[in-house]
Amino acid sequence: FFGYRYLHVMPRQEKAAEAMYVAEQLFAQDDFATALNGDGNNLGFLEIAKKYASTPQGNLANRYAGICYMKLGKWNEAIKSLSQVKESKGVPSEVLNSMNYGMIGDCYSQLGDYANAKNYYTRAIDCTKNSLTTPMYLKKLGMIFEKLGDNKSALEAYKRIKYEFTTSIEARDVNKYIGRVEQK
Fold it and tell me: What is the pTM of this model?
């Protein structure tokens, strides 16, 4: 066990982290296509995700690849990459898991597949209850319910923001959404 961990796993994690450095720099500069595919000398997130799939960095590379595809407007590819991200455990990871499901929901929403978007926004909300991601995805879920013609569920989502997440950014203007749904 120790030999495997220290002679195989840890060196792979270090190599993956080194490989990701350039791709992360390109990502930070909004060069999403190069960060995704590499520049010829350095690996991109797609290759890192394949080559180091069993490492945490490989998992992170899938998340980065999904975000790159989203920025490039390639929704189906983004869904594929984000779906390959393995769930993590622990408090900060719950927020990342929630955001991952939410991004998949965003992709389906962009594709007009509101049923799948609803499912992923619901999963994002169920991952963790916090004042950052939960009201954001409740608002998006409410908007999806409106598009699906389910005004009762939309109203419930908006009211949850109003009463459970009163200090969130989304709570500031949720009354206009509630009013719009109540008038329908």
Answer: 0.89
